[in-house]
Amino acid sequence: MPFADRTDAGRKLAQALAGYRDQHVVVLGLPRGGVPVAAQVAEALKAPLDLILVRKIGVPMQPELAMGAVVDGNTPLIVRNDEVIELAGIDESEFKHVCDGELAEIERRRKRYLGSRERIDVAGRTVIVVDDGIATGATTRAALRATRAREPKKLVLAVPVAPTESLMMMREEADEVICLEDYASFGAIGCYYADFRQTSDDEVIDALARSVPAPMK
């Protein structure tokens, strides 16, 4: 397997991103699994670490199938996958019900992870969005679009592993895409890790506590 665990993946990803060291970047990790990866990248680049809270909107009878995604913000960003919505026969009220549930989970996580801590201002800075891998790409695309709306100078996506097809779509959203391993025939993300145990809330909070201070505005 390419990666022992998320820490190993993060260290390897950091090596691929070494050119950004000391360039005043901001690293954004997707909770929960993307945060241990992002923490290694942030440490190596001497960059502050923050979160981008995004949740998949799953089809009710098949939650792993994404019919959209929602991202936290002053005005939450909702990205719809109309093809999946139509194929699954989901009406607007059902979509809204699932979406509201994911927004509630985002709010719970924001309070748990960040408390009263303000989001880092990324406007005019190079931002590296990090996750532990890409599956359908719905949450990743939503995260990139929400980050783009915050007006970074450059938007970079960095992941250890992803389907080749998904990377093609991500290059339409990000200015640069860094991926260590991509496969035309892709299984679940966990197939590429020897240890893919669930990341806990406490691990996310600890990673944020260890990160370097946010850059001055």
Mean pLDDT over all positions: 92
Cα-atom radius of gyration: 16 Å
Estimate percent helicity: 25-40%
For the biggest β-sheet, the strand order reads: 2-1-6-7-8
Given helix and strand content, the structural type is: alpha/beta
Describe the sheet with the most strands.
5 strands, parallel
Oligomerization status of the protein chains = single chain
H and E string: HEHEEEEHHEHEHEH
Number of strands: 8
Low-confidence stretches: none
Can you give a write-up of this model?
There is one protein chain. This protein has 217 residues and is an alpha/beta fold. 37% of the residues lie in helices and 23% in strands. The protein has seven helices and eight strands. It has a five-stranded parallel sheet. A three-stranded antiparallel sheet has the order 3-4-5. Strand 4 (62-71) and strand 5 form a beta hairpin. Helix 4 (92-114) packs across helix 7. The longest helix is centred in the middle third of the chain and has 23 residues, at 92-114. It is globular, with a radius of gyration of 16 Å. The chain starts with 5 loop residues before the first helix and ends in a 7-residue tail after the last helix. The model has no long low-confidence stretch (mean pLDDT 92).
